[in-house]
Amino acid sequence: MPNLLVDISDVYEQKQKAIASFSSQFDLNNYFQSTILNHKFLKHMKNRDRYYGSLISTDYAEGLIFEGKLYCNNLFQIITFNN
User: Fold this and answer.
1) Is the residue at 18 inside a domain?
2) In total, how many domains does the chain have?
């Protein structure tokens, strides 16, 4: 489970277009082939991004696993959510 969630709502359409630019890598008509590169993967990705967004009260979020030090130049822009 990621411990850093980044709001990507404003750029989500760009993310989808970027992934679509690799459409030759996806078998969009094959639901049964055992590969993550089909409609199931794209649907799963969108649902996952929506779920992560719901955890921080946004439409979409990218989940990252953070290890190490975190730099911040504006402490007032950090928002924390408790489960």
Assistant:
1) yes
2) 1
Q: Which amino acid is at 31?
A: Y
pTM (whole model) above 0.85: no
Say whether 77 sits in a helix, a strand or coil: helix
Residue 20 belongs to some domain of the structure: yes
DSSP 29-60: T-SSSS-SSSHHHHHHHHHHHHHHHHHTTSS-
83 domain-assigned = no
Span 58-72, pLDDT tens digits: 999 999 998 888 788
Q: Counting Cβ atoms within 10 Å, is residue 70 exposed (0-12), middle (13-18) or buried (19+)?
A: exposed
The rounded distance, in Å, linking the Cα atoms of 28 and 42 is 9
Residue with tokens 């730099």: 71
